[in-house]
């Protein structure tokens, strides 16, 4: 009994110390994001988020929230917050865990206006994603200072798409991408931009992201952008 317990622990320790990060995607030229750690964050607004804090300060923090009434496979609004170091020209979030065939939320600072532009994208290949009308956004807040730019959006259409949907009960895989190069037309949601310098993936259920539906809806409704 003791020895089987011990070998289970040993096997788990060996798996955990594997030198190949499970959720990092090696790309040439990027500073590779190692193992991603998720946690729960609740703001004073009462909104709670599943958050991914980067292991490297050169990558963004992503937070997502959903109403606690949401059910798997159905359409519900989601909230996404991206806080990125100013050195990043754009940051994107992939709701289905990869570059292709899922809603992409891409954001970039709008020059020196202090505002951040959000753009709805979709890609069927690994080239510049086109604009995607299946998801629409309300900007809840955005800002830029000397160290970071930040945006929080509510998305209608990011929980369900052609070929996929979020699960509110089991594990989802998400992905993100960032570039150090500024986009070509920062004020335009249709701007082109260049390929990422880093990408990452992580898997989690959405239990940490659940916010009482009334709080969630009120938060989205009253935000002034
Ligand atoms: C001009 C824009 C873009 C180009 C040319 C591009 C191109 C590529 C290429 C060639 C790969 C494969 C790299 C490799 O395997 O070495 C890749 C992977 C990836 N890209 Fe992009 N990408 C662009 C924008 C985006 C955006 C906006 C996102 C997310 C919002 C994104 C997310 C990802 C992710 C997560 C991966 C790794 C997983 C996967 O291959 O699906 N990309 N991209
Ligand atoms: C700059 O913005 C970031 C992200 O919103 C924030 O965490 C940080 O406190 C701000 N810094 C200053 C000096 O205001």
TrEMBL record:
Domain of life the protein comes from: Eukaryota
Keyword vocabulary terms for this entry: Signal
TM spans (from-to): none
InterPro entries: Cellobiose_DH-like_cyt, DOMON_domain
Domain annotation DOMON: ranges: 90-179
Keyword Signal carried by entry: yes
Membrane listed as a keyword: no
Signal peptide stretch: 1-24
Cited PANTHER family: CELLOBIOSE DEHYDROGENASE CYTOCHROME DOMAIN-CONTAINING PROTEIN, DEHYDROGENASE, PUTATIVE (AFU_ORTHOLOGUE AFUA_8G05805)-RELATED
Name the record gives this protein: DOMON domain-containing protein
Species this chain originates from: Podospora didyma
Top-level taxonomy: Eukaryota, Fungi, Dikarya, Ascomycota, Pezizomycotina
